[in-house]
Amino acid sequence: MTEKRRQPETQFVHSDWSAVPDVHRFSHLAMATTFEVLIQYEDRTYAQQAAMAAFAEVDRLEGALSRYLETSDVTQINHLPAGVPLHVALDTFECLRISAEMFERTGGAFDVTVGTLVDCWRDEDKKPRTPSQEELHSALDRTGTDLILLDEPTCAVALLASPVKVDLGGVGKGYAVDRMAETLKDWSIDRALIHGGFSSVLAIDAPAGLKGWPVTLSHPKDRSRTLARLDLSGISVSGSGVEKGRHIIDPRTGQPAESKLAAWSVAPDAARADALSTAFMVMTESEAADFCRDHAEVRGLIILPEDHAARRAERIVSLGLWKPQELVY
Questions:
Q1: Residues 11-42 pLDDT 10s
Q2: pTM of the predicted model as reported, rounded to 2 decimal places
Q3: Domain-by-domain residue ranges, the chain?
Q4: What is the secondary structure of 150-209 as a DSSP string?
Q5: Domain with residues 73-169, CATH architecture
Q6: Distance (Å, rounded) from C-alpha 264 to C-alpha 63?
């Protein structure tokens, strides 16, 4: 989750925080992104102390969850022989538990072990390539969050196959945002908006006198094109996309997924919102629509790109129950 070189980020969610009075804004670099906390509180010094405590929590989590740190729990899991238990930190275990839950709920569309498959579709220079069937079958045998056994009483992890390439990037940043919110609450800070790179956003309580924290979802290729306006309170929104020339790999099949420019999810907490925006990039349009229909607490938005061969224009598709005034595309 911490890379040596930070790449330019796409901001999937934007907040018009300047429209909220008496807001203090604090930022911190961690997990290869910028975390920010917007706090509405009368005492700036106290608000800053609370924000620093929240940022310290992010740094602590990064030490356990990053696959780029040799001493992290995730790195140890990725070098673990099959059948050998490993005791991990409680936060690592909780992230893996949420990942297993979302793997099951999405029918495998969200999978923190997809890394081996992704590597098959790239050469040593990270350029696209087409793997052989033998390579794909071998990678599929080592893909699936259900290959990770979790023993809650001992907080231990074991693998059914090895090596398995675990990457918690699709849930870890959201989990960190959730933990930051808990830290702020411990400091009696309730009116706050937290985000990691403006792709994982969580609002605690609404600012005084407002329905919620005003945020917008914009087209990743044209930020002037607003797709949705939300007033966030006690809820999270997450956005995912794909770099030009790259493909999203469906961990269920090992093949490139249906092409999408971007996907957003709105869910009760940031960790699950992160997992769902990733899953919506993998799922077909009908699968994502069915998921939101069956889970009333979840909403989604996806952009299907223009397809010249099929003579299909770009489409923006809403999933789940949005309020009429929220969608503006």
A1: 888 887 778 888 999 999 999 999 999 999 99
A2: 0.93
A3: 73-169
A4: EETTTTEEEESSS-----THHHHHHHHHHHHHHHHHHTT--SEEEEETTTEEEE-SPPTT
A5: Orthogonal Bundle (1.10)
A6: 28
